[in-house]
Amino acid sequence: MSDRLTADDKEQLRRFGQRIAELRGQKGWSQERLALESGLARSYVGGIERGQRNLALINILRLARALAASPADLFAHCEA
């Protein structure tokens, strides 16, 4: 992660990652399964869930599609 991210930026990434983990857990999926369904690497999914990745829009859309959620659903609980 870039050192240019503020503490608030990092908190938002952490919350986003928690939301992804929550939705994944509701489906009963492992990180590996979500990675397969979304076309992303398992290590990348793990980094997202730990709040260590600043995602590109296309990857947010891939995760939403795989989780059968809207992109807005992925951002629940991310607001300060």
Characterization of the model:
The chain has one domain (7-73): lambda repressor-like DNA-binding domains (434 Repressor (Amino-terminal Domain), Orthogonal Bundle), CATH 1.10.260. Helix content is 64%, strand content 0%. The chain has helices at 7-27, 31-38, 42-49, 57-66, 71-74. Helix 2 packs across helix 3. The longest helix has 21 residues, at 7-27. It comes from Thioalkalivibrio versutus. This is Transcriptional regulator. One of its GO terms (cellular component) is cytosol.
Topology summary:
Blueprint lengths: L6 H21 L3 H8 L3 H8 L7 H10 L4 H4 L6
Short synopsis of the structure:
With about 80 residues, this protein is mainly alpha-helical. The protein has helices spanning about 5-25, 30-40, 40-50, 55-65, 70-75. It is globular, with a radius of gyration of 12 Å.
Instruction: Give the domain tally.
Output: 1
Strand content: under 5%
CATH architecture grouping: Orthogonal Bundle
CATH homologous superfamily classification: lambda repressor-like DNA-binding domains
Low-pLDDT residue spans: none
Order of helices and strands: HHHHH
CATH topology: 434 Repressor (Amino-terminal Domain)
CATH class: Mainly Alpha
Structural class assignment = mainly alpha
